[in-house]
Amino acid sequence: MSIISLDSLDKKILYHLDHNGRASFSDIAKNLKHGRDTIEYRINRFIEKKVITKFQVVVNPYAIGKTIYKTYLKLTSDKSQIQNFISRLKNHPRVFWIVQCDGQWDLIFSIAAFSAFEFNQIQTELLDTVRKILVESQIYIPFEFKEYRLKYLMKAGTHYFKIGGNPSFRQLDKIETDLLNLLSQNGRETISELARKLSTTNSLVKRRMETLEQDGVIIGYQATIEVEKLGLTQFKTQLFLNYRSKSEEEELEEYSNKHPKITCFIKQIGNCNLELEIHAESYNEYLEIINQIRTKFKNLIRNTTTILMHEDYIKWAV
Q1: The overall pTM is greater than 0.85
Q2: How many domains, the chain?
Q3: What is the full DSSP assignment across 114-143?
Q4: Which tens digit of pLDDT belongs to each residue from 168-202?
Q5: How many angstroms from the chain centroid is the CA of residue 233?
Q6: Rounded to an integer, what distance in angstroms lies between the CA atom of residue 221 and that of residue 160?
């Protein structure tokens, strides 16, 4: 994969689109004090070079009564069956995140279900298709995760998308469901184009989007950035703890929030209570980051597992 060289303006544009994918060319230009045409040209170049592969809405499934269940799989090396399984996952309406991996696990996918019973039904049906190549599996239930802004592009800060919480009973009507699915396909779709596709009015679409944002269903809009094009590799680190300490976990969370290369902090139920996602320029840099964390939090962390992530796929369909 060819690596794209970024100048200071490129990084600033990506930094803004990372957590505000609907920002207009004019708004970004005003914020960065550059001409609108320059900003539009650079963003279109990112799309052409596949640095940005998608713009989409970010939804909190917990705000509409769903819980996320993550499944980790170790599989035999039958590439044909694995690809068929991945295609099945991509087409399943409740599967919204898939990533192929190297290391402890080969594949991770997430299901958003209304109950453990519904999750089990979906999970059983899906895994039945790969029983012959399934070596090992593990399930985790995240109850809160923070996806940090890509701090290494511009500056460290405290901005993040927070997903989780107690599942609510907020129900979506058909227009809201269709609207969210359209925004999952293209988070920069104009109000007028959304209204045309939904056969309704601009004002109704605008009101529904504002309501979904106020109710915490829509928590933002994001550009999907291919970090490999920036010369970075995505790692997931599973943290196995000696004990649960609220104060030490909060200290680790604050440390993660400020660290420029830590992009996600996940709290979950399972034998691994915490996970980090890290973007590093090399495996050596990744190891340096992890060794610093293990040294600083040596009383809290018993062990870690490294997963190299690639071919990430996400769709915030509801």
Answers
A1: yes
A2: 2
A3: SSHHHHHHHHHHHHGGGGGGEEEEEEEEEE
A4: 989 999 999 999 999 999 999 999 999 999 999 99
A5: 15
A6: 12
* Cβ–Cβ under 8 Å, residues 257 and 148: yes
List pLDDT tens digits, range 224-279. Answer: 999 999 999 999 999 999 988 889 999 999 999 999 999 999 999 999 999 999 99
Q: Are 273 and 305 in contact (CB under 8 A)?
A: no
Residue 210 within a domain: yes
Q: Residue 36: inside a domain, yes or no?
A: yes
Q: What is the CATH number of the domain that holds 179?
A: 1.10.10.10
Exposed (0-12), middle (13-18) or buried (19+): which is 251, by Cβ within 10 Å?
middle
Q: Please, are residues 298 and 39 in contact by the beta-carbon 8 Å criterion?
A: no
Tokens of 41: 């040209």
> Which tokens in the block code for residue 239?
């943290």
Domain containing 39: what range? 8-57
